[in-house]
Design brief:
The protein has 14 helices and eight strands. It is of the alpha/beta class. It has an eight-stranded mixed sheet with strand order 3-2-1-4-7-6-8-5, sandwiched between helices.
Length: about 400
């Protein structure tokens, strides 16, 4: 009987352990100092900043007011700040215009971020050098555009900035912030250190205007457009740079229910794109598209919030089954935990350790609950609402 159980559990243990070891490799790579050096080219570029805002009246005015302060660091004539108003109130739109933002109003039967961006790109087709994508709650560092311009001048055509948590008023916001920190280190910085593309986070991104225009009209995603862009760019052998000095504050989810909806949307897009792209990515390897294959394989990772719990269960279970499988599961669990200890600063982690410990059961149950949202997100855009943009 134990042999049969061992055979059945083997694929799960192998999947989780491989994922844990992979995370550990990226975590260790993220700690390696960069070797690149360059001569800064301060020639300014002209930017189109696009901010899709779906029913975001609660945050868009405050984030716009703060972001337009970029004019103190980057000449106001060198960027157009466009709020894509989908479902915003008329008075909100009027207030945005009074702040100096351009408002592009859209109305879709079924709204998606991709449709909003495509509509704006049709409308704003002036002579821009770069495009920046922000979320409605995002507040960028005053040097954001100057740094983006420097990276474009270095020859990078796709750049992901560093998103930092803007709020920590709840346990789930703290956990979500730590998750963002770990993801930045492993999937962005660690990947770059290994010569591979960073992940895209959906906001805090900058592209050359020509590149973004060439890909945006090919996007079809209802949710997870950043994943679709990652795959499209790496398929074209475009390298995605991670810029730690392009900083944007991003509001984390405020409730476990919002977390569950958001993760359901993310997981659906993640695994759908994995199934769709796996065969083309393997074929692309013959053409030297290893970055494309890496991005595709990355989509096979297990849900990060569930992986440690699953590995604990597997370690306990295999202890009574077979010694070899037990040590494999234990190695996976050790690698998984170590990857987070390496990438999350010890001070904040220790400070919030009791809050995190108490919140873990809710985190695990919410992640399981995300599975029920996966099917719905295939046909419906599950929007994550925000409250008040933070500095």
């Amino acid at each position: 009987m134990s042999t049969i159980v061992s055979i059945l559990i083997l694929p799960l243990v192998a999947w989780l352990t491989i994922a844990g070891v992979y995370q550990l490799i990226l975590a260790l790579a993220s700690q390696v100092a960069p070797k690149e050096s360059f001569e800064a080219n301060e020639t300014p570029n002209r930017f189109l900043i696009l901010v899709p805002a779906y029913q975001e009246d609660a945050v868009i005015l405050e984030s716009t007011r703060k972001n337009l302060a970029l004019r103190y660091e980057y000449h106001r004539d060198l960027f157009d700040y466009v709020v894509i108003a989908d479902g915003l109130k008329a008075e909100t739109q009027a207030a945005l215009r009074s702040l100096g933002a351009l408002v592009h109003t859209v109305n879709f039967e079924k709204s998606t971020k991709v449709k909003a961006l495509q509509s704006a790109m049709r409308q704003f087709n002036k002579d821009y050098d770069g495009v920046v994508i922000l979320d409605a709650d995002n507040v960028v560092n005053l040097s954001f555009l100057r740094k983006a311009s420097l990276y474009l001048n270095q020859g990078y055509t796709a750049i992901q900035g560093q998103r930092r948590a803007a709020n920590s008023q709840s346990a789930i916001a703290i956990l979500d912030g730590f998750s963002e920190t770990a993801n930045n280190a492993m999937l962005c910085q660690g990947a770059n250190r290994l010569g591979l593309s960073s992940k895209l986070s959906g906001s805090g991104m900058a592209f050359t205007y020509d590149l973004f225009k060439s890909v945006v009209f090919q996007l079809e995603a209802i949710g997870g457009f950043d994943k679709e862009m990652e795959l499209m760019l790496t398929r074209q052998q475009v390298y995605i740079k991670y810029a730690t000095d392009m900083i944007v504050s991003d509001e984390k989810v405020a409730s476990f229910e919002a977390y569950s909806r958001q993760r359901g949307r993310w997981l659906e897009s993640q695994y759908s794109f994995f199934k769709k792209e796996m065969v083309p990515a393997l074929k692309g390897l013959k053409e030297g598209k290893r970055d494309y294959l890496h991005k595709t394989l990355q989509l096979a990772l297990p849900p990060r919030a569930l992986a440690p719990l699953a590995l604990i269960v597997c370690t306990i279970t295999t202890f009574w089954l077979t010694e070899a499988l037990f040590f494999v599961a234990l190695a996976g669990l050790t690698a998984n935990i170590a990857s987070y200890l390496i990438t999350i600063p010890s001070g904040p982690l220790f400070k919030h350790s009791w809050v995190i410990f108490k919140a873990l059961p809710s985190l695990f149950s919410s992640t399981l609950g995300a599975l029920k949202w996966m099917k719905r997100s295939r046909t419906e855009f599950l929007h994550t609402s925000h409250n008040l943009a933070q500095s």
